[in-house]
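hey can u run this one w/ coenzyme A bound, need the structure tokens asap thx
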Amino acid sequence: MKATFDYSGAKVFVFGGTSGINLGVAECFAKAGATVAVASRSQEKVDAAVDLLSAFGPAFGFAVDVRDSQAVADALADFHRASGEIDVLISGAAGNFPATAVSMSPNGFKAVVDIDLMGTFHVLRAGYQYLRKPGASVINISAPQSSIAMAMQSHVCAAKAGVDMLTKSLAIEWGPAGVRVNAIVPGPIEGTEGMARLAPTEESAAAVRNSVPLRRYGAAEEIGAACMYLSSEAASYVSGAIFPVDGGWLAAGVPVSLGG
Ligand code: COA
Ligand code: NAP
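ok here u go:
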């Protein structure tokens, strides 16, 4: 059965939405009729994403580093001025590289925490005033590292665990205003920068694939479908959830070591 969603007229902002999973998510909403905005550091990537998304409807792009709270706030204000209240706000910008804790400089650890966790705080804090109330859906893109400890991933584990707790805390704070806040935990997704960094060889990719109960990598569209479900009426009583979309990977305990 094919899942279909109608987001005609909805306003959707995806931070980190210019490549990989998050661009796939933005594309799903654009194809479903939404006006979309994407933001990331590289103007070139922003322009390419807007080109692609404009084929489906109105699309906006902002060259923004999520570590810069003022730049994040300005982008959200611009999108709100141009399009109105935001129905779906997604925070997905992230950084990752495999390194042991002792081989990593304090600044290396900080870079990932600043992008993944502080960046998500900046996006949600500045975004709140522009959300449709009641009715808006906020989704943070987390990772299996938020609940499964992994060698060479101490920075990401710490940052994404924080993202999950931020998700739950804000679900409590924003629930009374009718704003739902959830996180999606993607499993290994095909063709992404994340998996290129964590499983760079065919051998390591095959080990990951075989460790997934469904025996395959997921597709960005499958994360997009989950975001569309979580933002729809079908999920009107779902808030504060940390939602795995991972072929059963977390259930299996992620029994491979990444980064090789
Ligand atoms: N191993 C160990 N340390 C590393 C590293 C690696 N592979 N890559 C970067 N670092 C360290 C740098 O040495 C630097 O620390 P230092 O100043 O003490 O030398 C620190 O991390 C910041 O590096 P820098 O390149 O200045 O950061 P940045 O802000 O430009 O980029 C990163 C952030 C490091 C996360 C970069 O990998 C990135 O931009 N990633 C985005 C894409 C991505 O990771 N996608 C997958 C998402 S799951
Ligand atoms: P990706 O293509 O590298 O996506 C990361 C996005 O964030 C890019 O658009 C990047 O664009 C942007 N970004 C990075 N640093 C930024 C910053 N400081 N400010 C603003 N934007 C920034 O990687 P991906 O693998 O698809 O990962 C996407 C999300 O899914 C991440 O949150 C990741 O943790 C999560 N995830 C991925 C997997 C996987 O299998 N790949 C699994 C679980 C979870 P710029 O370079 O232009 O800034």
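Residues 94-97, 99, 104-105, 107-108, 111-112, 193-194, 197 surround coenzyme A (ligand 1) (CB under 6 Å). anyway lmk if its weird
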